[in-house]
Design brief:
With 424 residues, this protein is of the alpha/beta class. It has two domains: 108 residues, no CATH class; 202 residues, no CATH class. It is built from 17 helices and eight strands.
């Protein structure tokens, strides 16, 4: 017997309520099973239970066998002195607290199908533990859980964003700038783009943001591309080198190493050089990111901002000295959707949460509802199982479900898993 399923049965009252007596024959009435304790100490805190004629308030400890109390040395630990009930699957020993109190024991009875349902999920080796039963879950029930998961994912990302915010001294504009740069690198060049933003504060970018040539000189120079001898130096590159040398000394900058950037097996439209040119075009348009996000209502307005045309040189080049065969345009729709999903919406949600602005949190989720879902192997598999995924809010929720619950076998914390375990 697994202690986790016993805790679950106790927490949700899935036991036989007709057989609620302590080992010494006293009646038990549960007003509250308590809250599950994620810290050290008893399994449940703040429980309210009537034992015999007395109402007790305190903690509950759950074990497979009552003798586990002694093997876990709880009888020597004062943290367990306020345990009011010992819930077990098998009562095979009397137990006392460190203070000498004999704790009442409840040998919990329940339908055997509950534990077999749990074992079936826990021992499953399929793509998700409940793969054979997923199609039986009611649509309304599933949709409610998916909506909750989308918010849970945002809240988890909020905690990640907070850790970066400390490095920016609570400057949310600087924070968005860093997140945007990292996101434009996608997986392959995320790290060098992140380092580029860290090495070049937004405050410096703002000072020259009205001059696209200076912006490109600053960004390409700081990224290390102007130090690269592999590229043929044409007139435009020479102009940027001269401008960057001035800016580098003025702001006391140290550039990245060109070798950090990856070009191998990347389509030319996704080359880091093209992405940096696109960043320069965005910064030339606006660096007031907070104002932009607060003032924007329709997600299509975001598309307009991110579709800034690159400079004339980069409309015709993938790299310095290497003309492009096809004209390069602004950031594509699919890339913009990725930016909204992975940067814009989580950032706006975090900004709203940090400042207590509920309407911004709502807007961030509404934007996800207005754009297409991601198209990856995980989403494809969910669709094969019958999941209806029509927007990015839903796809984000299903990613959260797979990565944070299914892969970690957190079935007893998943609403679907809880529903399936309780079926008898």
């Amino acid at each position: 017997m697994d202690e986790k399923i016993l805790q679950h049965i106790w927490q949700y009252g899935l036991y036989d309520r007709q057989a609620m007596k302590t080992a010494d024959g006293q009646d038990i009435q549960v007003a509250s099973p308590g809250m599950q304790n994620s810290d050290s100490g008893p399994d449940f805190i703040d429980a309210r239970i009537k034992i015999g004629e007395t109402v007790w308030a305190g903690c509950v400890e759950v074990h497979c066998k009552s003798s586990d109390w002694n093997s876990h040395k709880h009888s020597e630990d004062p943290a367990y002195n306020n345990v009011i009930l010992h819930v077990v699957y098998e009562n095979n020993a009397d137990i006392i607290t460190q203070s000498g109190y004999k704790v009442p024991t409840f040998e919990m009875k329940f339908h055997p199908k509950i534990s077999s349902n749990y074992r079936e999920l826990y021992e499953s080796r399929r793509w998700i533990p409940c793969e054979s039963s997923f199609s039986t879950v009611e649509t309304l029930f599933l949709n409610i859980w998916i909506e909750a998961l989308s918010v849970e994912r945002m809240e988890r990302k909020y905690n990640d964003i907070l850790s970066i915010l400390e490095d920016t001294k609570n400057d949310f504009n600087e924070l968005f700038y860093r997140l945007l740069c990292k996101n434009l690198g996608f997986k392959v060049n995320a790290m060098p783009f992140e380092r580029l933003a860290q090495s070049l504060p937004l405050s410096i970018v703002k000072k020259i943001s009205d001059n696209q040539v200076s912006l490109e000189a600053l960004l390409f120079g700081q990224a290390g591309f102007l130090d690269n001898n592999e590229n043929e130096t044409d007139d435009y590159m020479a102009l940027l080198i001269k401008e960057y040398e001035f800016l580098k000394h003025k702001y006391n900058l140290k550039s990245l190493n060109y070798s950090e950037w990856k070009f191998f097996r990347i389509r030319p439209t996704n080359f880091p050089t093209v992405r940096i040119a696109q960043l320069a075009a965005l910064f030339n348009k606006s660096t007031d990111f907070i104002g932009l996000l607060i003032d924007t209502e329709d997600v299509q307005e975001l598309f307009k901002y991110f579709k800034q045309p690159v400079s004339e040189y980069w409309q015709n080049h993938y790299n310095f000295g290497k003309p492009a065969k096809r004209k390069i345009s602004e950031i594509g729709d699919q890339s913009i959707e990725g930016i909204i999903i992975n940067t814009v919406s989580p950032f706006l949600f975090a900004y709203g949460m940090f400042n207590g602005a509920e309407y911004l949190k709502i807007k961030s989720i509404e934007w996800l509802e207005q754009i297409s879902p991601e198209n990856n192997s995980i989403i494809e598999k969910w669709r094969e199982l019958g999941a209806e995924i029509t927007n990015a809010r839903q796809s984000q929720a299903y990613l959260e479900l797979k990565n944070s619950y299914c892969d970690k076998k957190r079935c007893l914390e998943c609403r679907i898993g809880c529903r399936l375990v309780a079926e008898i």
